[in-house]
Amino acid sequence: MAAVTRALALAGSAVSSCARGHVLGHVLRGKTTGARFARALTTTHTSSFGQGDGGGFDDQDGFVDGERDSVLHEMGMIEGVNDPEGAEQVSSSGAVFRQNSLTGSWVVFAGRRRDRPRQLDAKVARTPMEDHPQHDPNCPFCPGNEKYTPPDLKTITDHQGAWTCRVFNNKFPVVSQIAKGQDMNPHARRKFRFNFSLQALGHHEVVVHSRRHNSLLSDCATDTWMLVDAWRDRGRELVKDASVRQVLYFKNHGAGAGASLVHPHAQVVGLPVVPDYVGSQLSFNRKFFQAFGEDAFSMTVDTEQNRQGPSRIVVENDLFMAFVPFAASSPFNVCILPKQPGARFEAIDDLTLKLFADVLQNVLRRIDVTLLQPDYNLVLRSSPVSWRGPQRAFHIGSFFRWYAEVVPRLGAGAMAGFEFGSGMSSNASLPEDDAAALRAANIIDASL
């Protein structure tokens, strides 16, 4: 055990936040020895990263593939920190760096910034949803105005035949619609050209998941289920297009989150390219798997469930865990993570979909009760289409897992000079405190 303690101290805060509980768990369960894990975490090897037969830990001789220091340096992990326990806390000086073990992104927590003097009010005036009408004759998404939208791609109806959920192409898409049968493969080899451009083709669809103009997703479990069901159905359809490499699922609620219409709706986008952010996260997740022999998502579930300190878990059921990440990029940022492996959201079965909808609606209700119906972004992150392009070289499900994020937008000014200049996020709210506040929300008696 002394060897393990020394290894963890050398590994620093980035490892201690996620791997400490996992490492000790392996030792206590007899899967390996303390010395073997110490060697795995601290030994510098001379071979180059990427060589060998797949990497990871070996129960006979520890870390056998790749130069660990090189791997962790490439992943942005810091070594040599002498106070791994202290990295969990914001000290009296008011600041600490934390790294998100799912994305590799760094966040600085600076609680004292909440006390800055303010001469400018960045708050945006908001109208609660209940103050909007149930039906707006000028809203293109309200019943009776179907003629103002493109034809339905998917429709869910009630027992009387009235639609309850509609999906149709976006009239103002971020990408132009790919014609049926049109081939759009940007990954074909091309002659290098400086300032390269590519025609923005793809699919951009709108999901109207309620008939009511002023409906809150947090207030209706049926609407939540219809949304995720429509997302899954349209995702399955879009990946059939040979040009689609990535499907994005998101919902912008409120003007502060980028919504242009009040009526509840979400969106689905099929892209012929894998966005840089997605590619960077996949690269980080793969290197994490090679460095530690287990995926960051499994480690996160294990660590959060067995955490000795203040819990960051908000709510969970048999298949999902909702928690405020150790390195949450903004206040009350909640991640909903499946407990079982699976890289593609489109591949989940009906029971998994139902349990995901249950947790999602519970989280949204807690956020609405605690923060008084804030604007928010809901993003579902699924893997690229794994049987096309460079993704074919990897078994993505071994190191990546689909998940969802809810990001409340609590006022303007979240992105400022520090964030743009450093590429880091700054957060003045501790995840442990945010999780406690969300758990304490009275979601049963609350009237939204």
Q: Which of globular, elongated, flat, extended, rod-shaped describes the shape? A: globular
Q: What are the segments in which pLDDT stays under 50 over at least 5 consecutive residues?
A: 1-66, 79-86
Number of DSSP-assigned strands: 16
User: Cα-atom Rg, whole angstroms?
Assistant: 23 Å
User: Share of helix among residues?
Assistant: 25-40%
The computed structural class is: alpha+beta
What does this structure look like?
The chain is of the alpha+beta class and 448 residues long. Helices cover 27% and strands 18% of the residues. Strands 5, 6, 7, 8, 9, 10, 11, 12, 13, 14 and 15 form an eleven-stranded mixed beta sheet that branches. A hairpin with a 3-residue loop joins strand 1 and strand 2 (62-63). Helix 3 crosses helix 8, helix 5 packs antiparallel against helix 7 (276-292) and helix 6 crosses helix 9 (350-371). The longest helix is centred in the C-terminal third of the chain and has 22 residues, at 350-371. The termini are far apart.
Note the topology.
Blueprint: H1 2-11, H2 13-16, H3 19-28, H4 34-42, E1 57-58, E2 62-63, H5 68-75, E3 96-99, E4 106-109, E5 152-157, E6 163-169, E7 176-177, E8 201-208, H6 221-238, E9 246-253, E10 266-271, H7 276-292, H8 296-305, E11 313-316, E12 320-323, E13 334-338, H9 350-371, E14 375-381, E15 403-409, H10 417-422, E16 425-427, H11 431-439
Parallel strand pairs: 4-16, 7-8
Antiparallel strand pairs: 1-2, 3-4, 5-6, 6-8, 8-10, 9-10, 9-14, 11-12, 12-13, 13-15, 14-15
Helix pairs in contact: 1-4, 3-8, 5-7, 6-9
